[in-house]
Here is the input.
Amino acid sequence: MATELVHIGFGSVIAVNRAFAFLALNQQPIKRFIREAREKGLLVDATRGRKAKTAILFDTGHIILAAVTAETIAHRLATVSMPSEEKVDLGSICPEP
Here is the structure.
């Protein structure tokens, strides 16, 4: 199984196959969950000082804070997951005699 990486802003990438939730930070239970992760040493802040907009939960119990929205990350994930449909004109490579 290949590891898919997705850019979450400011030069940071995550392994999507280990992430299981992208959550907005506008609810109190999520803020409480982040506070508990910070106390346990399981919080990674990838915002570079900007306002955190998304909490990414991992199967290891770690949480990464990102400065981009969950919708943006989901769009990037969908873009990365789509197979490339690159068409090659064989006539230009191997011309008929």
